[in-house]
Amino acid sequence: GQNIDQPTEMTATEGAIVQINCTYQTSGFNGLFWYQQHAGEAPTFLSYNVLDGLEEKGRFSSFLSRSKGYSYLLLKELQMKDSASYLCASLDSNYQLIWGAGTKLIIKP
Amino acid sequence: IAGITQAPTSQILAAGRRMTLRCTQDMRHNAMYWYRQDLGLGLRLIHYSNTAGTTGKGEVPDGYSVSRANTDDFPLTLASAVPSQTSVYFCASSEVPESTDTQYFGPGTRLTVL
């Protein structure tokens, strides 16, 4: 079956660094997406990885290991506005997104 | 501002009633999608359309129907609503279907079926 696992909730301190992990098992693989979703709002695109390694984009970086079926999202210099849910999604062989349930990130001052 | 609009924002509906959720995009994207989002679960694909005039079934299509008469509009219809269809519904679009293209989401419709 297809499965995406990520922690339900994480807490971090303003100014710190947090890593949100995601493991995936899908029928085929065409890349891994991360989206941010603030409470009551739509998901918005953060990153896409298809090759192994780390991709950096400002304060946010995303890592992929295809052999391990593993990705993480790294958020640096945390700000209060980063409080949101972070959704991991794998693009399967039919180019359909299989979504994790999301990780709710709580930032404390 | 270009993007996706959905209507209504929220709705309370009696079980057994028919309901159409509207979705319109002005980005001229070929592909459109309907998802539902429930607490503790990931987004689940209901139906999709790769181009105007075509539609396909997603992971959870039962009880829902869609149409794609033109590029911009992709309405989702619940023929006879049931309480298990209480959810937040998101419409999304991408420029190229069946590709690695990013999907862009509308603001969502919160539906409660009593």
What does this 3D model show about the protein?
The complex is a heterodimer of chains A (109) and B (114). Helix content of chain A is 0%, strand content 57%. Chain A is mostly beta strands and 109 residues long. In chain A, a hairpin with a 5-residue loop joins β9 and β10. The radius of gyration of chain B is 13 Å and the shape is globular. Chain B contains no helices and eleven strands. Chain B is mainly β. The mean pLDDT of chain B is 96. Chain B has strands at 4-7, 10-13, 19-25, 31-37, 44-49, 56-57, 64-66, 76-78, 87-94, 104-105, 109-113. Chains A and B meet through β5, β9 and β10 of A and β5 and β10 of B.
| N-to-C series of helices and strands of chain B | EEEEEEEEEEE
- Taken as a percent bin, the fraction of beta residues of chain B is 35-45%
Any low-confidence stretches of chain A, pLDDT <50, length ≥5? none
Percent range for helical residues of chain B? under 10%
Overall strand count of chain A = 11
Radius of gyration of chain B: 13 Å
Class from helix and strand fractions of chain A: mainly beta
Oligomeric composition of the shown chains: heterodimer
Summarize the structure.
Chain A is mainly β. Chain A contains no helices and eleven strands.
Features:
heterodimer, A: mainly beta, 6-stranded mixed beta sheet, 0% helix, 57% strand, B: 114 residues, mainly beta, 11 strands, globular
Layout of strands and helices, then pairs:
The complex is a heterodimer of chains A (109) and B (114).
Chain A: E1 3-5, E2 9-13, E3 18-25, E4 32-37, E5 44-49, E6 53-57, E7 60-65, E8 70-75, E9 84-91, E10 97-99, E11 103-108
Chain B: E1 4-7, E2 10-13, E3 19-25, E4 31-37, E5 44-49, E6 56-57, E7 64-66, E8 76-78, E9 87-94, E10 104-105, E11 109-113
Parallel strand pairs in B: 2-11
Antiparallel strand pairs in B: 1-3, 3-8, 4-5, 4-9, 5-6, 7-8, 9-10, 9-11
